[in-house]
Each structure stands twice: as C-alpha cells, then as structure tokens.
C-alpha cells in the first residue's frame, strides 16, 4: 500500500493555504493582537483567552478553503 496519494492531497491543501490566509487577513490580525495582548506582562496566557477571535479565524479559513479551487 502506497502513501503517495496521501502526500499529494496534503501538498494540494498546503498550496491553498496562502490564498486562505490572504482572504482572512483581518481575522488573523485580530487573533494575533489578542494573543499578544494576553501574553504581555506578568500574566500567563490562558486557554480560551482569545476564543472568540480564534473561532472567527477558523470559520474564515473554512470558508476560504471551500471557495479556493483545487
């Protein structure tokens, strides 16, 4: 049994990633700002601190990947 098909599908998904990231720039920036703000200072980064921003980014990626040809 060959794993070649698995790698071809994985590469195809990775090729679509830049377009998905470009389509979700606002959400990615908001998530990054949230994580940076939550990690700044003496407080430690807590789980789900930026859950709302992460979910918005995740939904945007899902939409972008469905819309990207390939």
Number of helices: 3
List the helices and strands in order: HHH
Count of strand segments: 0
Strand content: under 5%
**Main beta-sheet strand count, sense and barrel state:** none
Rg result: 16 Å
Percentage of residues in helical conformation: over 70%
Mean pLDDT: 85
| Morphology | elongated
Structural class, by secondary structure, is mainly alpha
Q: How many angstroms separate the termini?
A: 25 Å
Protein name: NDUF8 factor
InterPro entries: NDUFAF8
GO cellular component, one term: mitochondrion
Descriptive notes:
This protein has 70 residues and is mostly helical. The chain has one domain (17-67). 74% of the residues lie in helices and 0% in strands. The longest helix has 20 residues, at 4-23. InterPro entries: NDUFAF8 (IPR034595). One of its GO terms (cellular component) is mitochondrion. This is NDUF8 factor.
Write the layout of secondary structure elements.
Blueprint: H1 4-23, H2 25-39, H3 51-67
Helix pairs in contact: 1-3, 2-3
